[in-house]
Amino acid sequence: MPRSISDHDYAVLAEFRFAIRSFLHFSEAKAAEAGLTAQQHQALLALRAAGRDLTIGELAERLLLKPHSASGLADRLHALGLCDRVESEDDRRRVMLRLTAKAGTLLRELTEAHREELVRLRPLLSGLLDSLSG
Prior knowledge:
This protein has helices at 7-33, 38-50, 56-63, 67-79, 101-130, and strands at 54-55, 83-87, 95-99. It is mainly α. A three-stranded antiparallel sheet has the order 1-3-2.
């Protein structure tokens, strides 16, 4: 039988969601300062974190998008000089997305700011998670 949910559980969930929303607001503002949308920043981060070139389909999966939406996003990143579309070495019909040096510099600056904010939030988030009853 499931355990009942306490008033404390509701309070912790509300605070946790507030902390996440606050971080997302911070992230959106930092991306905007860099001339990017939050989605463009997330795409760059997904491409960098993959450690290899990604297909449009793989990027769509990482961003929870439909492939046609990820394709449009990749077009916009390409127009900004932040990613290149390259032929796959394995299958010339397949197009891969690769970050440019410009994207690497921009992403490094954004990631430094995000890492600092996460370090600042870490005690709050850890405390909230630790305080859940269960």
